[in-house]
Amino acid sequence: MAKIGVVIPAAGQGKRMGVGCNKQFLTLMGHPILARVIKLFEDSEYVSEIVIVGAVNDIPVIQELVQSYKFDKVLPICIGGVQRQDSVRAGVQALSTTIQRVVVHDGARPLLTLREFNRFMEETEKFSAAIMGIPLKDTVKRIDTSGKVLETPPREFLRAVQTPQIFDRGILAEAHHQAASVGYYGTDDATLLEWIGYPVHIVEGSQENIKVTTPDDLWLAERILAMRDE
Ligand code: C5P
Asked: Closest residue (by CA) to atom 1 of ligand 1?
């Protein structure tokens, strides 16, 4: 089996949370969001090592968190960049040279379960680039800058994309390298592979695998965890 490393981008400022600190340090049912994310990969037999990418000012707090939870797959914390894509690129470069496949998972998605992650790993084994996504509940419209509706894409061919995303390391590094060299930015890593013409597959994600972005997400995440009876 390929040796797998996980990159956790956690260098965002969390401005939409409005709490004046990195949202990944907020506590959810007794544990910081980031600690919940790291624990999932510590517990997974698929994962050999973990790189956390943090903002330069957050490095001491992240180091302390890793030590206090005794996470032992975590490499020295990597310093993030201006955009998420810059942070992921730095994280991929920091992985050991023996790592052949890379999982990228947002530091702000603490509700992914080990069972869902294991299913993701099984279903994506045959693909060199694969991501999690869920069908849309709402109809989506493409609009122009004035708010005029241009078209309504058929919903059965649309997915809301999440992390984890998994890639063969070589192709992920190449896509990041090419994007960085011309200043191309995508909102996830899969976009960069699509941009260089590489096929990306999608497997079914989970409605509960939300990204904690705004205060109402925090409320929802707490309700979901309470239902899981943690
Ligand atoms: O901003 P957004 O919620 O899309 O960020 C997704 C993930 O990427 C978060 O876990 C955030 O900390 C991370 N990120 C990063 N470096 C940045 C911006 C965001 O690692 N410059």
From this structure: 12
Q: What is the pTM of this model?
A: 0.96
Where do the domains of the chain lie?
4-229
Residue 11 Cα to ligand 1 midpoint, Å, equals: 6
DSSP for 97-126?
TT--EEEE--TT-TT--HHHHHHHHHHHTT
Out of 3.90.550.10, 3.10.350.10, 2.60.120.260, 3.20.20.70, select the CATH number for domain 4-229. 3.90.550.10
Measured by CA distance, the residue closest to atom 2 of ligand 1 is 12
* Range 141-176 burial, b when 16+ CB lie within 10 A, else e: eeeeeeeeeeeeeeeeeebebbbbbbbbbebbbebb
Digit-coded pLDDT (tens) for 106-140:
999 999 999 999 999 999 999 999 999 999 999 99
Using the 8-state DSSP alphabet, how is residue 134 labeled?
E
Length of the chain: 230
